[in-house]
Design brief:
- This protein is an alpha/beta fold.
- It has one domain: Ribonuclease Z/Hydroxyacylglutathione hydrolase-like (Metallo-beta-lactamase, Chain A, 4-Layer Sandwich), CATH 3.60.15.
- 20% of the residues lie in helices and 23% in strands.
- The protein has six helices and 14 strands.
- The strands form two sheets. The protein has a seven-stranded mixed beta sheet with strand order 6-5-4-3-2-1-14.
- The chain is globular and about 45 Å long.
- The protein starts with a strand and ends with a strand.
């Protein structure tokens, strides 16, 4: 298994010999406005992609946790090949079909694709009214016969759904979206440093990969902030915080 962070929540995962593109945000830096009603009003994305993919040759499929613009932007909509399979939560299937994608498969509970068993998990993209407005979002657990169990939590805070997924599937590798994204009012809508620590404590045998930082204007927790907090908590060895373009291999 190989996990490569391209930028933000956009990952390229090699599993069971297949290359899955996760939550593609492919546009150039600054092409999108700042997130409305959020601090740090810079245009998005904050940084360019430093890797260019041949989307016809370099990917076998796409996996979407949800279709907010920082997980499926206009550039991705335009550039993704229409004949590549897209796996998504049920609520997004019709939208993707309307956009012209020909092979759209909804993951209701469990879906098998190319020798990979994919289980959909829940999450909370914030709290109270904000969470209701941001819903629905999903995470996914990927299982194969010969590789580690991988859990992609998606855009969620630490919540009961995340705790249950960690307990039920006992993943060896967990990818969490951090950054402590938030609006001017209300609680964070993605994981804070404190949430990442909760994941570590609840899955002490798992390797935690933290992404979703330093690319969108309302993500306020930086890699440096997170690393400092993990050092304070004695968890640096359990967590990987990749830079954009970095590949993580030899996962067990």
């Amino acid at each position: 298994m190989e996990v490569q962070l391209l930028r933000h929540a956009t990952l390229l995962i090699v599993i069971n010999g297949k290359r899955l593109l996760i939550d593609p945000m492919l546009g150039q830096a600054g092409v999108m406005p700042p997130i409305q009603n959020s601090p740090n009003p810079q245009r998005n994305p904050l940084v360019d992609l430093n890797i260019q993919l041949d989307l016809q040759k370099d990917i076998d499929g796409v996996l979407l946790t949800h279709t907010h613009k920082d997980h499926l932007d206009e550039a991705a909509i335009q550039q993704l090949p229409r004949n590549k399979p897209i796996l998504c939560q049920p609520e997004d299937k019709d939208k993707l079909k309307r956009l012209g994608f020909l092979e759209v498969y909804q993951v209701v509970e469990t879906f098998s694709w190319e020798g990979i068993v994919i289980h959909r998990t829940g999450g909370q993209h914030g709290t109270e009214e904000i969470a209701a407005q941001m819903a629905p979002v999903s995470g996914y657990v990927l299982q194969t016969s010969k590789e580690p169990v991988l859990y992609i939590a998606g855009d969620t805070i630490y919540c009961e759904e995340v705790s249950n997924a960690l307990t039920q599937y006992q993943p060896s590798v967990v990818v969490v979206n951090a950054g402590g994204a938030r609006f001017i009012s209300g609680d964070p809508i993605t994981m804070t440093a404190q949430d990442v620590v909760k994941v570590c404590r609840n899955a002490p045998k798992s390797k935690i990969i933290v992404v979703h930082m330093e690319a969108i204007n309302h993500c306020l927790v930086s890699r440096t902030d997170l690393c400092a907090y993990l050092q304070q908590e004695g968890l640096v060895d359990q967590v990987l915080i990749p830079m954009n373009g970095e590949k993580i291999t030899a996962l067990k």
